[in-house]
């Protein structure tokens, strides 16, 4: 969060630590199942003595229980439950100032619910026909939401859905390089795991751009033209996770070996093509341009010694200055 604290789930406990002093600030216990999601509440809003600010976060467990915490007192403020399945994803609805207590949670297999965490009231519910895995809000337009599901299907309205099947990477690649002859490989079935979508999120610096993270590549989709505008190939270490910083057009990628790479968008990626005679050569119309997006690798941290019993699972950056904290699993 903006205050500098790091919160994470440890079995059925929520641990709040200070990364600078490596000291445990608070331990929160109310859950019976293992913690699957932890989210800090919004803090960048006006508060004064009449409307004081309270440090709070929300946690969800494998039994479907959502708890809103007052971190200072260590006591739960609200408990929410709708079903007994693990919460797939959740996000604070922070793109509005009407209320700071609105939380959107993905209750498996296909229910998206808007909660008022102050009262525990269900305000809105949307049920889909496919099993959803995660979702992401458009930071430039809160009316847009993208979701990852198990099956590929046409989306209605402004709800964009990204299939997690291995065929999506192949279809998006064909948009850039064109259709080719069908080739069957004996190792195609063995590479299914390498083509599964691990994460999707809206770009925090570029409008209409959606990032799809695969173990071996990152696809950049432009939802305004419904095309792939960039493919970032990754190294053999893979790229389980990615995050786009709010301050700059930068991608921070966490790899399976524990290393973090920094990629900056190439400024010279707009290449003008020669104007043909009768079109753009003797008039004021602009020449056609290539809008492919490319990111250059700038730096990389040393890899960690990862054993077969441990793996890097997540990392986060401090919103104020971009400092990175990572977690692993044994």
From TrEMBL:
The lineage of its organism: Eukaryota, Metazoa, Spiralia, Lophotrochozoa, Mollusca. Residues 3-268 form the WDR11 first beta-propeller domain. Coiled coil: none annotated. This is WDR11 first beta-propeller domain-containing protein. Pfam families: Beta-prop_WDR11_1st. GO terms for cellular component: cytoplasm. It comes from Pinctada imbricata (Atlantic pearl-oyster).
């Amino acid at each position: 969060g903006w205050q500098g604290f790091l919160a994470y789930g440890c079995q059925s406990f929520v641990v709040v630590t200070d990364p600078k002093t490596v000291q445990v600030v608070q331990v929160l216990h109310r859950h019976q199942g293992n913690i699957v999601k932890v989210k800090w509440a919004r803090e960048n809003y006006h508060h004064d003595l009449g409307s004081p600010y309270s440090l709070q976060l929300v946690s969800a467990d494998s039994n479907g229980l959502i708890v809103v915490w007052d971190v200072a007192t260590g006591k739960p403020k609200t408990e929410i439950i709708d079903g007994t399945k693990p919460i797939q994803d959740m996000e604070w609805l922070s793109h509005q100032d009407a209320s700071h207590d609105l939380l959107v949670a993905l209750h498996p297999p296909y229910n998206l619910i808007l909660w008022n965490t102050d009262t525990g009231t269900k305000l809105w519910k949307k049920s889909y026909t496919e099993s959803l895995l995660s979702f992401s809000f458009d930071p430039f337009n809160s009316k847009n939401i993208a979701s990852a599901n198990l099956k590929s299907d046409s989306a209605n309205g402004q709800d964009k859905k990204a299939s997690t099947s291995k065929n999506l990477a192949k279809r998006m690649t064909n948009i850039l390089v064109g259709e080719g002859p069908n080739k069957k490989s004996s190792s195609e079935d063995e590479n299914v795991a390498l083509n599964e979508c691990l994460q999707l999120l809206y770009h925090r610096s570029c409008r209409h751009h959606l990032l799809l993270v695969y173990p071996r590549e990152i696809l950049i989709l432009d939802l305004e033209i419904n095309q792939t505008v960039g493919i970032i190939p990754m190294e053999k270490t893979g790229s389980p996770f990615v995050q786009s910083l709010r301050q700059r057009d930068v991608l921070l990628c966490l790899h399976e070996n524990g290393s973090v790479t920094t990629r900056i968008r190439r400024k010279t990626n707009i290449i003008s093509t020669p104007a043909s005679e009768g079109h753009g050569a003797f008039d004021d119309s602009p020449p056609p341009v290539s809008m492919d997006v490319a990111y250059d690798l700038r730096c990389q941290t040393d890899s960690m010694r990862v054993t077969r019993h441990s793996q890097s699972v997540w990392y986060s950056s401090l919103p104020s200055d971009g400092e990175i904290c990572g977690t692993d699993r044994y």
